[in-house]
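Hey, resending since the last one bounced:
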Amino acid sequence: MSLDPLLRPKSVAVIGASRREGTLGREILRNLVSFGFEGPVYTVHPKSSHVLSMPAWPTVADLPEAVDLAIVVVPSAKVLEVVQACADRGVKALVVITAGFKEVSESGRALEQQILEIVRKHDMRMVGPNCMGIINCDPKVRLDASFGSTLPLGGNAAFASQSGALGEIVLATAKAVRLGLSHFVSLGNRADVSSNDLLEFWADDPETGVIMLYLESFGNPRHFGRIAREVTRQRGKPILAVKSGRTRQGARAASSHTGSLAGGDRAASALFKSCGVIRCDTVAELFDLGRGFCTQPLPGGKRVGILTNAGGPGIMATDAAVHFGLDMADLQPDTQVTMRKVLPVEASVANPVDMIASATAPQYRVCSEALLRDPGVDALLAIFVSPIVTDKLQVTRALIEGVQAAGQNKPVLACFMGFDAQDEGITLLADAGIPNYPFPDAAARTLAAMHRFQAYRDEPEGKPVRFKVDKAKAKALIDGAKAQGREWLDGAAAMELLQAYGVPTVESRRVHTPDEAIAFADALGYPVVLKLDSEQVVHKSDVGGVKVDLRSPGEIKGAFWDLQQRLNELGVTDAAFLVQRMVAGGQETIIGAVADETVGHLLMFGLGGVFVELMKDVAFAVHPLTDADADRMLREVRGWPLLAGHRGSAPRDVALLREVLLRLDQLVGDFPVIAEMDLNPFMAAPVGQGSVAVDARVRLSSR
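The C-alpha cells again:
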C-alpha cells in the first residue's frame, strides 16, 4: 500500500483540534497552517463550530470530503471509535498522536491491536500511535503534521525516529546546523508503518538524497537488510543510523566461542555493514555525517589534503584523518610550486599545508584551488583560526571562490574554529554548501564515512554460492540428536555433519574404552589426540580435557586414566572420548555461526585456538553470505597477513577458507535449528597440504 496519502496528502483533517492554548490538537493545527500546507485542512471538534478561525465539523462523518490524511489527537479511550469512523468515511491514512497503548499496559496492547485490525482491513496506513507526527518539506506539499515547536528547513535529508522524545531535539538541531529535511517521521509504536516502509518510500523519492535513522529495534531485520541494500547500492542513497541498546548482554547464555563473541551489539553492526548502512555512535555524529553527505559529493578515494593557518589544528586534523582510515595526500610538485609563489618562506607546502597565522584571504583562495586541482587529492579539509589581524569574512569568501574556481567534484569540509553557529562567515559557508565543523576530528570522521560509503558501492556486489551436499545425512544427524533430547551434537556427529556439507575434517572416532581407542589409533597411525566428548564440558581445554601427541598404546592408556580422573573430579558421568589423527602445523582459525534473535544467523571468521575470546580478532557477517562477503570477512581480521603469507611464510589456502565459510552459511540456511556452531580450530595449511577442522561444537535450538 502506497505511503503517498500519508506523506503527500492532498487534504488533511485534525480530529481532536482544540481551541485551548498549549494542547497538542491546537499546536498541530497551528503548525499545519503556519507551514503552509498546500491543500485543505479540516478540523473535527464535537462542540465548537470554529477552531483557530477555521470551520469545525462535529464528527468525521460530517466532513465535506474523505480526506487523505487524518491526524488523531483524542484520548486513548476514543481512538478506536475515531479510527473506525475514519475507515467508514474512506480516510486513506492516519497519524495517531495519542499515547496510552502497548507502551503502557497489556490492555493498551490489546486496544492497539484492535486499531491495527481496522487499519489493515480497510487498506489504510498509520503512523503511531504514541508519536510526535510527520513533516514533509517538499514545496509542493508543505506538511507539518507534528506538535514540534521548530519549523524545519527544507532539504534532502529524510529522518525517521523511533523515539518521540528525540523528535523535538532532532528538529531543533537540524535547524541550528542548517541541515535541511525532506521528511521527518516520528514512528511511535510502529503498529503499522515501520522504518522499512519508509526506506522503500524514500528509495524512490526524488526529494530525498540521504536517509537518517534513529532506531531502537529492528522490526524485520532481513527485510531491512534487503531494502537497505537496494537503497545504498542500487539507488546510491546513503543511510546513516544510530542504533540504541548497544549494551544489552545478549550472549550471557552463549556457550560456544562464536556465541560469546557475537554478543552485545555485533549483530546490528554486521547487519548494517552488510547493506552499506553507516553506523553512528551518537546523535551528534549522525548530524555531523548528515551535513557532509547532504552537501558534498562523495570522494573518489581516501587521500585528503589539509589546509590550515594554525599548526596545532593541522596536526589534530592529520592525526584524526589517519585514525579514521584516511591517507594524507602526496602533493604534486606543481601544486607545491603554485602555493609557494603566494606563501611566505616560513610556510609549509607539504601536506598538511600550514600557511602560518598571517595567512591572508588571497592565499586561502590560491591554495584551496591548487589543492583541489591536484590529481592526488580526493578531498579537502580547510581549517581557519581567526587572528585579530585577519578579516574572517574575506577568508570565508576567498575559500568559497577557490573551491568554485577549481571546478572539481571533490568534497570540501571546513573547520573554522571558534566561530558561533550563527556567525556570518558560517552562514556564507552554509549557503555555498560547505559544512563547517567546530573541531577537525568531526570533519575527518565525516570524510572517512563518505569514503567508506563510496568504497562499499565500488566493491563487487558478490553472488550467493550453493554447493552439492548430503542434506539427507545432515538431517538424519540433527533429527537423531533431537530425538535423544540432546542440545549438543556429540563430537563425532558434529564432524559427520561437517563432512555432509563438504567441510574437510580430521579423521576421528568416538570411543568409550582404551582398547577401542588403541584399535583405531593402530589402524590410523600414530601420533593421535585423545579428547573428552561430553555435553557437560563445553570447552575441553579449560578443564585439561585434551591429550596430544600420543605415540603408543601405553600413552593412550595413560591419557585415558588421566582424563577419567579429571571426569571424576568434575562429576561428569556421560563422557565419551574422541580419538583423532594428530595435526601439526597450520594456522589456527575459527569459523562459526550463531543464531541471533534480532538479525538471524551470523557467520564468524577469525584467528582461533584457546585465546580466541581474549584476542577477539574476528569478523562477522549476516546470513546469507555472498562470495564477496566471505572474502571481506577473511581480509577484515587483523591477522590476515598471517594467512596471506607473512615475512616469507607460505600463504594459507585462503580459497578453501572462503569455501568453508560459504558451506557453513549454506548449512545454517538449510537448518535454522542450529543455534551455535564452532570449528575451532580449523587448521589452515598451505594449498594442498590438508587444511582441516580438528574440533567442532554444534548446539541445536530447543524450538
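The chain has a mean pLDDT of 91.

Sorry for the duplicate.
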